Known about the structure:
Layout: E1 2-7, H1 20-27, E2 32-37, E3 50-51, E4 61-62, H2 64-74, E5 96-105, H3 108-115, E6 119-124, E7 129-130, H4 132-137, E8 141-144, H5 154-165, E9 198-199, E10 202-203, H6 206-209, H7 213-231, H8 233-236, H9 243-254, H10 256-263
Parallel strand pairs: 1-2, 1-6, 4-7, 5-6, 5-8
Antiparallel strand pairs: 3-4, 9-10
Bound molecules: adenine.
Residues 99-101, 125, 144-146, 148-150, 152-153, 156 line the site of adenine.
Amino acid sequence: MHFDIFTLFPAMFAGPLDDSIVMRAREAGIISLALHNIRDYAEGKHAITDDYPYGGGGGMVMKPEPIFRAVESVLALAPRWADQPAAAPASQPIPIILLTPQGRRFDQSVALELADHPRIALICGRYEGVDERVRRHLCTDQISIGDFVLSGGELAAMLIVDAVTRLLPGALGAEQGAADDSHATGLLEYPHYTRPPDFRGWGAPEILLSGHHANVQRWRRQQALLRTAQRRPDMLETAWLTDADLAFLARLEQEPELAERYQAGL
Ligand code: ADE
């Protein structure tokens, strides 16, 4: 999968994408990244990429020309003009995504949807905003990573690259999968323990040390249900639950001491 990232601050990307799982995925050829500096596509001696907003008000607005030029040239798109009919969405198969707090909310299902594409383009907005014509006539999608305002879309782009990469086959290594991750199952993930079995008097749950695979699986499922019920009950409305899950959740409601025991990991 190939990511084209359009930004005014490519140096921000050094570090987070050069380590750990994303870097290994790059080295293994599972993903590739290209950073495109929007300033390189600005005209004139000063390569201006922003300007004052029409109508006044504070802040600067990113100009449309350098962004259109950058995206059209990197993705080899024929420049479109207002007097041309809009192309059918299918004729532009590479999603062109503007990172903006006004976009649809990013979550695991959006990550899965993006992971299906062989190539995506991410445009990092900056300043007070991006000229509306970029949104309306260049982008095919707009994504927000949450209801808060960042200084720009760069951190959002890195986060999306990370979340999408770990879903790609081979990115997590053979033995490890993204299948149990929090949210991947529609539930928060169960707790993890490793050696030592006793740490400062705090033990690891006996059941995890028992070697009894079916019991471990059941314990993990119940812990995931308990955590989700306590921390994110909204997720239970859409999670795929078995009859056994529903019976367990009903018991948790009826027997608060059971929840306490489970919470202690017992
Ligand atoms: N740019 C600024 N804030 C953002 C957000 N919450 N999500 C995506 N891009 C952004």
